[in-house]
Design a protein that fits this description.
By secondary structure, this protein is α+β, with helices and mostly antiparallel strands. The chain is about 15% helix and about 25% strand. It is globular and about 50 Å long. About 15% of the residues are buried.
Length: about 160
């Protein structure tokens, strides 16, 4: 997959995939094939943003069969994991994972306290994301905030 974006579906609803290794749920457009893949744009592997595991993209008949006879999927509004950029200002959350494709970025953010399990507060969304981690305030670009997966926490008053 080249360019990092893949059309999600005809109805423009996001398509969610599950990693068979770690069980992480992610949107199909977040997947990119490994750089330097000899198949290039013809590669049909999907890469989990959490663990980096690559697996074949599920076929249409298989997904249709799974929808017909499988367990009901959780609607997107009830998802437990969301990207940081989906939260509103003032919301509290717990960091679940960072995108596994950018190891250097993940290590740099860990220096500032962004590690799985830490609690965050979204202070600002525009012009850039400002989050509070403990006593540290960080400003993040939108593409970095989109690669941070969090779990919403009840608001603290």
């Amino acid at each position: 997959m080249e360019g990092g974006t893949v059309p999600t579906s005809r109805s423009s609803k996001p398509v969610y995939l599950h990693c068979s290794l770690c069980g992480f749920e992610f949107e199909k457009h977040q997947t990119t094939c490994a750089t330097g893949c000899p198949l290039g744009k013809y590669c049909r592997l999907v890469r989990c943003p959490n663990c980096g595991y690559e697996f074949p993209e599920p076929s249409e008949p298989l997904t249709w069969f799974a929808r017909l006879f499988g367990r009901k999927k959780v609607p997107p509004t009830e998802r437990k994991l969301v990207c940081l950029d989906e939260l509103e200002e003032g919301e509290h959350c717990e960091l679940v994972c960072l995108n596994g494709a950018h190891v250097a970025r993940r290590n740099a953010l860990a220096v500032y306290g962004l590690v799985p399990g830490c609690q965050l507060l979204v202070q600002q969304k525009h012009p850039s994301f400002v989050i509070r981690v403990g006593e540290t305030e960080l400003a993040l670009e939108g593409n970095i905030a989109h690669e941070i997966f969090v779990k919403r926490l009840p608001s603290v008053r």
